[in-house]
Write a structure and sequence with these properties.
Bound molecules: zinc ion
Number of domains: 1
Strand order of the largest sheet: 1-2-3-4
Mean pLDDT: 95
Distance between the termini: 23 Å
Number of helices: 4
Low-confidence stretches: none
Largest sheet: 4 strands, antiparallel
CATH class: Mainly Beta
Structural class: alpha+beta
Length: 123
């Protein structure tokens, strides 16, 4: 699971609607896989992602220390874009779990795939 995907996930247990984002990553295996760098795509994705959640997660996983505030324009910010690319696209949570800060529900991640399904009495 890419951190890009993680950034878009929130807990969807019934009744869990506050403090349900971002899911805390407790990973036992995080890997780096090279991906083609596409600055336009990264710039575009910056409008969709939650920056603070990404920063916190990247820092907690020891992947990168991202700046607190993004520059107003990404024009000429090649180094920063590469750093964000590394975090969003090249960092994969392979095994571990994602824990909801609100209800403590645990979503397992196995072989890079997150199981976001809930059993019947949780929906
Ligand atoms: Zn929850």
């Amino acid at each position: 699971m890419r951190l890009l995907t993680h950034n878009l996930l929130q807990c969807h247990v019934k009744g869990c609607s506050t403090n349900n984002y971002p899911l805390r990553v407790e990973a036992t295996n995080v890997v780096h896989k090279e991906a083609d760098f596409n600055p336009e795509f990264i710039t575009h994705m910056l409008q969709k992602i939650e920056w603070n959640a990404l920063r916190t997660t990247a820092s907690a996983l020891g992947v990168a220390e991202l700046p607190e505030i993004l520059p107003l324009s990404m024009e000429g910010q090649e180094e920063l874009l590469k750093q964000i690319h590394l975090v969003l696209m090249e960092t994969h949570i392979m095994d571990g779990k994602l824990v909801c800060p609100g209800c403590s529900h645990e979503y397992l991640v196995t072989h890079g795939v997150g199981n976001m399904l809930l059993i019947e009495d949780e929906v």
